Amino acid sequence: MKNQKDPKNQMKRRDFLSTAAAATFLPGVLAGSGCNRQLGPSPVDAAGGTNMGPGYATPQDAINSPRETLLYTVGIYSGTDIKKPDYFATIDVDPNSDTYSQVVNRLPMTHVGDELHHFGWNACSSCFGDPSKARRYAMLTGLVSSRIYVVDLADRRNPKLYKTIEPEDIKKKTNLSSPHTTHCLPSGEVMFSMLGDADGNAPGGFLLLDEDFEIKGRWEGEAVEEMTYNYDYWYQPRHNVMVSSEWAAPNTFKQGFNPAEVEEKYGKRLLFWDWNERKIIKDFDLGDGGRIPLEVRFHHDPDSTHGFVGAALSSCVWHWHKPEDEWVVENVIQVPPVENVPGWDFPVPSLITDILISMNDKFLYFSNWLHGEIHQYDISNPSQPKLADKIKCGGVTGEKRVHRGKKLGGGPQMLQLSLDGKRLYATNSLFSAWDNQFYKEIGKEGSYMIMIDCDSEQGGMKLNEDFLVDFGKEPDGPARAHEMRFPGGDCSSDIWI
Predict the structure, then answer these.
(1) Is residue 343 a part of any domain in this protein?
(2) C-beta separation of 124 from 54 below 8 A
(3) Nearest-CA neighbor of 216 among 23, 15, 16, 14?
(4) 263-286 burial by CB neighbour count: b if 16+ within 10 A, else e?
(5) Domains held by the chain: number
(6) Any domain includes 491
(7) I need a labelling partner for 418 at 20 to 30 A (CA). Which of 180, 288, 377, 451 fits?
(8) The pLDDT value given to residue 52
(9) pTM (2 decimals)?
(10) How many whole angstroms separate alpha carbon 255 and alpha carbon 76?
């Protein structure tokens, strides 16, 4: 299906693709010299000082690795009255530490108004086996500013800013803006999903940085003509496939959410790409049951073709796999809306915003941002998920929960699960413009970070009574928190080849 866009915009993209920048559209991402080279001394990896490169040989090795002791997130002042740069926060998650459940370091960025959002690594388990590589650099995205920050984690507890990639350079060299998802590639490059063009219009594309974090160009080439919107992506090299999802143009979502714009300005497609050839091979229009498909997650087992995507507005989860020669998608989970909520003129959807899969591929977790719940499903049979448990922590429905003296305002949003599947961390900010529309208290009271104890064998969840990070008490004022990652890798960034 071709992108139905303004002819002038179509011509603008075609003209751009015909420039010298198009020379960077080289086939064979899997070819190359390996992941990002070292750029300095290698820090000790969380896998116990392995000399076999970053990450783990297999998902099972990740499960058996030592418990996380540090966690990173972003502190966001964008969209508030506090005119300070957003910052990269280090959280102590070692229960034997005197500073457990506290922010122990704050690294401010260089500009005000970036809206730090998602971040990833320069190298992950896809580089295992190369002792010259390390998971040393965090790649932070400014969703509003289009600025990219490279943070050096040689000192895990006290990161330093290594490099800033300015939005003007990105827009000039690639005609892209609003970076979102980051993955390192087996080729040594780092790839970002970009949600807009230089002017903030859809469909965006994919940005490549080389091993020195220099702008290399775009990944998708002329396939951009078949895209309508862009959002998240995940690749599975053994099956020569990448799956990407859709949100909306930056010029749309930056203004807040207008239900009247859903039909014309928000996505509902799931795209399957030939990973080597960089072309779209399958286009699934999910229809009304797949409005705003956001986070995409493959099984961690690199031999598996199973994966899931959460459709936010439709409040459902779709499952895909390749039973024979063709990719198949099916709606496997539906969360019903809540009727008769005070202040709402229509039934409130759950708004599934983040999902992830446990490292052993047994449990799927997702957050219902408006209902204020986290759900846990047993996906031993991926086509027939079974609800294992759910936990209430915020939302517009029902009573507000108080935890360690903090009212859990907003709803659970970003999730991160420990490698052994026993600790689930959650924050409550989605995006400042949407926070300010649905949960104004987040901007005034700050985010929370909570930890949920999970039964990784039988299923079950319980709020950990000893852990809370209250971002309402930050030194420069209440901040929002979003994406979370562990220094040694996690359940939503590592890919095996």
Answers:
(1) yes
(2) yes
(3) 23
(4) eeebbbbbbbbebeebebebebeb
(5) 1
(6) no
(7) 180
(8) 62
(9) 0.91
(10) 18
One-letter amino acid of 208: L
User: Residue 472 maps to which CATH number?
Assistant: 2.130.10.10
HSE-up of residue 186 (Cα within 13 Å, Cβ side): 17
pLDDT of residue 14: 39
Q: Nearest 5°: phi and psi at 357?
A: -120, 135
Question: Is the model's pLDDT at 202 over the cut of 50?
Answer: yes
Domain annotation covers residue 310: yes
Q: How does the average pLDDT of the chain come out, rounded?
A: 90
Residue 473 is assigned to a structural domain of this protein? yes
Q: What is the 3-state secondary structure (H, E, C) of the chain?
A: CCCCCCHHHHHHHHHHHCCHHHHHCCCCCCCCCCCCCCCCCCCCCCCCCCCCCCCCCCHHHHHCCCCCCEEEEEEECCCCCCCCCCEEEEEECCCCCCCCCEEEEEEECCCCCCCEEEEEECCCHHHCCCCCCCCCEEEEEECCCCCEEEEECCCCCCCEEEEEECHHHHHHHHCCEEEEEEEECCCCCEEEEEEECCCCCCCCEEEEECCCCCEEEECCHHHHHHCCCCCCEEEEHHHCEEEECCCECHHHHCCCCCHHHHHHHECCEEEEEECCCCEEEEEEECHHHHCCEEEEEECCCCCCCCEEEEECCCCEEEEEECCCCCCEEEEEEECCCECCCCCCCCCECCCEEEEEECCCCCEEEEEECCCCEEEEEECCCCCCCEEEEEEECCCCCCCCCEECCEECCCCCCCEEECCCCCEEEEECCCCHHHHHHHCHHHHHHCCEEEEEEECCCCCCEEEEEEEEEEHHHCCCCCCEEEEEECCCCCCCCCCCC
Rounded distance, CA 86 to CA 469, Å? 17
Residue-wise pLDDT for 13-35, tens only, equals 334 333 333 333 232 333 333 45
Task: Kindly provide the b/e burial profile for residues 78-117, where b requires at least 16 CB atoms within 10 angstroms of the residue's own CB.
Answer: bbbeeebbbbbbbbbbeeeeeeebebebebebeeebbbbb
- Structure confidence by residue, pLDDT tens digits, 439-468: 999 999 999 999 999 999 999 999 999 999
pLDDT of res. 48: 38
Domain range for 136: 7-485
Cα separation, 150 vs 482, whole angstroms? 18
Structure confidence by residue, pLDDT tens digits, 99-157: 999 999 999 999 999 999 999 999 999 888 888 788 999 999 999 999 999 999 999 99
